[in-house]
Write a structure and sequence with these properties.
By secondary structure, this protein is α/β, with parallel strands linked by helices. The protein has helices spanning 27-34, 46-49, 68-73, 88-98, 114-122, 124-127, and strands at 2-4, 13-18, 36-42, 58-61, 78-80, 103-107, 132-136, 140-145, 149-152, 158-163, 168-172, 181-182, 192-193, 198-203, 207-212. The protein is built from 6 helices and 15 strands. The strands form 2 sheets. Strands 5-4-3-2-6-7-8-15-10-13 form a 10-stranded mixed beta sheet. Strands 1-9-14-11-12 form a 5-stranded mixed beta sheet, with no helix packed on it.
Length: 217
């Protein structure tokens, strides 16, 4: 059974994708942005990253948001993928997988436009067959699962579940128990709460699990 740890300040990770949404400001995503082995920017995100003094290992996307100056400055690491069947986040994920990097943390995928947020988060379920990808925002962590999994948590931590498939769901160690429920809309399993230092979700389909940070700073 998969066990998902709770990201904490000081955590380092292998591969990070920085998307062009709300820039990291919470201490957890900020630490990860500054402590990783390989950093990929979706093309528009370099415009924000460059202000921090950090440099990416690769810039990936359709390059529609890349300024002429940055295109020239980073020409040797720009990987332009013009097709429009996937968004820049997925282009970046696929690029990382092609490099053999399948443990991926995405930052900056939420905020700004709501339609981009919904699309980026839902795409986690598309990556399940070939990569282990999580989105960490300034407010919490999104994880996709398609089978039973346990999540590290803190008592009182806010937890929301979103069924992508029509699946049967049972929870263990959440404040409001769920027993063999089939949810038909995203709101129905939102706004739950961890009852201890871990909880388990049993599912036979794809789901998104959200754990909010206890401290939003």
């Amino acid at each position: 059974m998969e066990i998902y740890k709770l990201p904490v300040a000081g955590l380092g990770v292998d591969t990070v994708i920085l998307a062009n949404g709300e820039f990291p400001s919470h201490i957890v995503p900020l630490t990860i942005l500054n402590n990783n082995n390989y950093l990929v920017c979706c093309d528009g995100a370099i415009n924000s990253l460059i202000k921090t003094g950090l440099k990416p290992d690769a810039i990936v996307g359709d390059c529609d948001s890349l300024t002429e100056e940055n295109a020239r400055l980073f020409a040797n690491i720009v990987h332009c993928i013009p097709e429009q069947e996937t968004n820049d986040q997925t282009k970046a994920v696929n690029f990382c997988v092609e490099q053999g990097r399948t443990q991926i943390t995405i930052l900056g995928a939420t905020g700004e436009r709501e339609d981009h947020t919904i699309a980026n988060v839902s795409l986690l379920c598309e990556y399940l067959p070939y990569a282990d990808v999580q989105i960490i925002s300034n407010y919490g962590i999104f994880t996709a699962i398609d089978k039973t999994a346990t999540f590290q948590s803190c008592e009182g931590q806010q937890v929301s579940l979103f069924s992508i498939d029509r699946c049967t769901v049972t929870t263990h160690n959440l404040k409001y128990p769920v027993v063999r429920r089939v949810f038909t809309n995203w709101w129905q399993a939102s706004l739950n709460e961890a009852a201890g230092d871990e909880f388990t979700i049993e599912t036979d389909g794809r789901m998104l699990v959200y754990r909010a940070f206890l401290n939003e700073k």
